[in-house]
């Protein structure tokens, strides 16, 4: 678990400022949703946290260490994307194990972590299948499994459910909530969908045109007088 702090974070592409002076903190174990319309700067924010995008000015730190000072492998962040890009020729087990193999974990440790994640995600019977032999929801769970096995301090989610049909999206929202209750890993989730934001977030950051317009609980933000 980790605390993520934004201090006067600004992003410019050329002369265009797309993120303006964002100041906020995300607590240990909190599920925060960054919500706003397309083009408002959500992905840019997430990518800056992941260290995939340079921060023009200000700092983002994780447990007191600025992200840009850390090597990618030392960032302890795992990111789940919209197109979850499983390796098609690898089994579910190897898809989940891949990142650990790269990091030279022992075979025993890899097996233990993959088995544990598979249990958590109800993928136990599917470990020898290839991605094409899975449903959309199962594939999305494998993508999450690949992140969970690394035991990161922070999970980043970039609209991970937007390619799923409506029914599956609702189911996966519940699964994500339950997963977060069990793991309590600090999670930052980007979406343009207000319903998704309300059902998932402990706290919401509403972005509009690169400004953090509102920050608060779903009740504080969406309650109408
Ligand atoms: P969102 O994720 O909310 O849809 P983005 O973070 O992708 O928004 O984009 C925020 C703004 O920054 C948009 O106006 C977009 O056109 C612009 N933008 C994003 N990436 C680049 C880039 N690499 N170069 C120039 N402008 C960019
Ligand atoms: P990490 O565990 O650090 O997230 P990944 O396992 O996601 O690392 O690999 C990083 C990137 O390398 C992937 O996004 C993918 O594009 C590429 N890659 C590495 N090995 C393969 C492979 N065998 N097949 C397809 N893509 C691969």
UniProtKB/TrEMBL annotation:
Extract the GO molecular function terms from the UniProt entry. ABC-type transporter activity; ATP binding; ATP hydrolysis activity
Keywords, alphabetical? ATP-binding, Cell inner membrane, Cell membrane, Membrane, Nucleotide-binding, Sugar transport, Translocase, Transport
GO BP terms: namely: carbohydrate transport; glycerol-3-phosphate transmembrane transport; glycerophosphodiester transmembrane transport
GO CC terms, sorted? ATP-binding cassette (ABC) transporter complex, substrate-binding subunit-containing
* Domain annotation ABC transporter: ranges: 4-225
Q: How far does the signal peptide extend, from start to end residue?
A: none
Give the source's domain of life in one word.
Answer: Bacteria
| The protein's name | Sn-glycerol-3-phosphate import ATP-binding protein UgpC
Tell me the organism. Desulfolithobacter dissulfuricans
**Range within the parent protein:** 1 to 225 of 309
